[in-house]
Amino acid sequence: MRRRLCFLLALVVSAGATPPPAAEAAGRRPYGGVVRVALPGLGGLDDPRALTQPGARWLASWTHCRLFRVDGRGRVRAELARDGGEMRGRTLTLRLVDGAQFHDGAVATATDVVQSLQSLTRSPPKDAAGAALAEMIAALEVRALDPATVEIRGPSRTDPHTIRRLLARPEAAILHGGTAARGHGCGPFRPSNGSASGVELVAHPGHPEGRPWLDRLEIAVRPDPRAQSAAFADGEVDLTPSIASRDRRDAASLRGALATVYAVVAPSLRGDDARVLRRNISALASEARLVRHSEWPAEHAESLWPTLLSPAPAAPPATGPALPQPVLVIAYPEGNASLAELARALRDALAPLSLTPARAVAVAGLDLRGAVTAKAPPWQLAVVSHEWQALDVEQAALELARALDRPGLTATDALTGRGRGYAAAQNEAAPAIPLLHLERPLHHRSWLILDGGTSAATGVDLGDAWRRP
Fold first, then answer.
1. Which of 150, 331, 399, 407 is the most exposed place for a label (fewest CB within 10 A)?
2. What would the DSSP string read from start to end of 318-354?
3. How far apart are CA 385 and CA 364, in angstroms?
4. Residues in Cβ contact with 321 at an 8 Å cutoff, skipping those fewer than 6 apart
5. Contact, 422 vs 397, CB < 8 A?
6. Cα end-to-end span (Å), the chain
7. Is 393 helix (H, G, I), strand (E, B) or coil?
8. Tens digit of pLDDT per residue, the chain (469 long)?
9. Cα–Cα distance for residue pair 427/431, rounded to 1 Å
10. Helix, strand, or coil here: 72?
11. How many CB atoms lie within 10 A of CB 198?
């Protein structure tokens, strides 16, 4: 609301004879300015559920609004909802912001909220994180009491904070009529001119919090991280998720997405008989200090979940006599230089466990889900990563259960706080050995002030950003 009030004040002052400078009209922040961004693609621009492409969550959070949002400190704030709502028993009642508009000019109503959440559950995202979110929302009963009031009923013992954090995810964006299309978003920026190589986003005054401080975002598509880094170094863009050390002049770096690197074991190394081998793999990986081979800030992983999302502490791995393997082949996704480096470092660390020289090989299309479900792969270990979308430990428990194809945890369990108990056994039984927890930083010009901060799940908040004069 502060942006909306400042915007109205600026309009009133502009009617006078001598308008003050923009910085005075808006308090300490000036309105105006353009920020140029390099992203790998345009996923999330029109459809906030199509978030498998890197950078898609950024675009979705800039062009779409949710009932709630998460700020840079991890706090849930109202966006399309007027406030946190009122919880009575199992039911959370929310009032919507008056007059909030979609990019096509239609006023956002409670019916749009219901239709959007129902559409998400009918056609859930394909990725594990989005599918887990859709399951949890499907366990809620959502209805419109009137055009400005939404009622959400959860299972018994559902915490209202759990509901708010669910509805703060980019996939839970509110769309006009519940359908994804150009103009159906209500985020702080509206898509304007664009093509496959980039798009222009202009300030949307109908956003629930009012007009953003920036006038425009110019999005350039740069699929290659090296091209993103070069664009920043050459002054072509002001914000990017990838930048080389040599190109960091005039750059500020902030925490971005959380990710975990796993070594997924082949079916032949699973089960009770292989546990000692898996524990030795974990111990040797720790001794090898794989963090030195990571291009992002990293820490050795003791648990399947990073610290901020860990539902249960992990017991220190017990080791026993090493069980040599006739051959040890370590696979990594073809074309992923970061995981290739980690796979080679792991190969060297695990050399004592292989009777023949261990090998690291590239496999086309390899990912976490494919590695977990492989029946008879030509490798013993696969080094893959998972980028976290969860906003709390219960979401994280269900997200990883779906990513690792593990049964036994339902959406209702996660909504009612039972994910923690389920998770305790997974560190030992899951078909994945955690290697590293990473933070993928984002980089921006020092004059770009990100008062909204960044969120691991939604990226950088440009709706609350401004340019220092």
1. 407
2. P--S---BS--EEEEETT-HHHHHHHHHHHHHTGGGB
3. 15
4. 276
5. yes
6. 23
7. helix
8. 546 545 444 433 333 333 333 433 445 778 899 999 999 999 999 999 988 777 888 899 999 999 999 877 778 999 999 999 999 999 999 999 999 999 999 999 999 999 999 999 999 998 899 999 999 999 999 999 999 999 999 999 999 999 999 999 999 999 999 999 999 999 999 999 888 899 999 999 999 999 999 999 999 999 988 898 889 988 999 998 876 666 666 667 777 788 999 999 998 877 665 677 777 787 888 888 888 888 788 888 888 888 878 766 665 555 555 556 778 899 999 989 889 999 999 999 888 887 788 899 999 999 999 999 999 999 999 999 999 999 888 999 999 999 998 888 999 999 998 887 777 778 777 889 899 998 888 888 889 988 877 776 677 888 889 998 7
9. 9
10. coil
11. 17
CA-based nearest residue to 259, from 145, 364, 368, 151 = 368
Q: Which residues, including other chains, have CB under 8 Å from residue 14's CB and lie 6 or more apart?
A: 25
Q: State how far the Cα of 259 lies from the Cα of 3, in Å rounded to an integer.
A: 33
Q: Model-level pTM?
A: 0.87
Rounded-to-integer distance, Cα 367 and Cα 349, Å: 22
